[in-house]
Amino acid sequence: MKEQMEAIQAEAIQKIEQVGELKELQDIKVAYLGKKGSLTGVLRGMGKLSKEERPVIGEIANKVRESITEAINLKSEKLERAALEKQLEKEAIDVTLPGRPVKVGGPHLLTKIVEEIEDLFIGMGFEVREGPEVETDYFNFEALNLPKGHPARDMQDTFYITNELLLRTHTSPVQARTMNEFDGGKPVKMICPGKVYRRDTDDATHSHQFTQIEGLYVDKNVRMSDLKGILDTFAKKMFGEEREIRLRPSFFPFTEPSVEMDISCKVCNGEGCSVCKGSGWIEILGAGMVHPNVLKMAGYDPEEYTGFAFGMGPERIAMLKYGVNDIRQFYTNDIRFLKQYHNA
């Protein structure tokens, strides 16, 4: 039996040295050391040995098993190391090759305009507030002096979800909600940027979804001259210090008096051209003093508090500032268009 085990050991080690793959090595391990392996088969005959022979043969069997196991482990390490080196060689990177250019994105032109406007008004003491895009009829219309049946509702063709729920047509509801939150107890100085929706036919200057930024300042002794000063600062910071503004009488249900603000045309400097249709002026936003009814519905005493509000479209501002002639270009995700204003 001793000779059998020594022969098994020599045969196993020879095969281990010749093996070239880990799978073959595993097969050898099973063939010699497994439950049905050669060494195990020989050891089953130990029952026929005398008591004196069993310890001697058992010790030899252990040494043979350890020898084969050690040879398998050493060969396994060698094969694994060779496989790793082969893989590393295959995946080697040639550091002398030129790098591939990485395409770097940037903020959308509208995002940049909105952030620029926000920074400007934050610098003048306004805070930025947001509100829901799915709005109630009350905050979108009634709280802004537009009761049910008011003809001015037709100015804003609305997407209704139910009789009382709709997609907001302007960001003014955020102003109404903020005043209601303060319940007439403290001043309000805020702007509210966001998306708005109207049933409109999309063309070069109109869209069913667009962006709006509205501002509100309510406090004691707020005057029309304060509004003009704020808007004049805005125009000069946004379009250049040489820009002039003018306020024209207009009508909005939630302000009284109401005005529309024009800026002097930056193309012709007020002399008249095709951009300003020969007038020298370009309409930019609407504004006015907050209607007393709006103040009352929000809990403010119009005898004690006054305020002004204004609203502008970032798309229109971007079109004027950067010479974009079609509002649809902001929403078509044409990379060629967006790249033009990456560093604007």
TrEMBL record:
A Pfam cross-reference name: tRNA-synt_2d
Gene3D superfamilies hit by this protein: Bira Bifunctional Protein, Domain 2
Keywords, in A-Z order: Aminoacyl-tRNA synthetase, ATP-binding, Cytoplasm, Ligase, Magnesium, Metal-binding, Nucleotide-binding, Protein biosynthesis
Family: Belongs to the class-II aminoacyl-tRNA synthetase family. Phe-tRNA synthetase alpha subunit type 1 subfamily.
Cofactor stoichiometry and binding remark: Binds 2 magnesium ions per tetramer.
Cofactor(s) recorded in Swiss-Prot or TrEMBL: Mg(2+)
Species name: Virgibacillus tibetensis
Reactions listed under catalytic activity: tRNA(Phe) + L-phenylalanine + ATP = L-phenylalanyl-tRNA(Phe) + AMP + diphosphate + H(+)
Subcellular location: Cytoplasm
Protein's recorded name: Phenylalanine--tRNA ligase alpha subunit
Source organism phylogeny: Bacteria, Bacillati, Bacillota, Bacilli, Bacillales
NCBIfam families linked to this entry: pheS
Record-listed E.C. numbers: 6.1.1.20
PROSITE patterns: AA_TRNA_LIGASE_II
TM annotation in the entry: none
GO terms, molecular function: phenylalanine-tRNA ligase activity
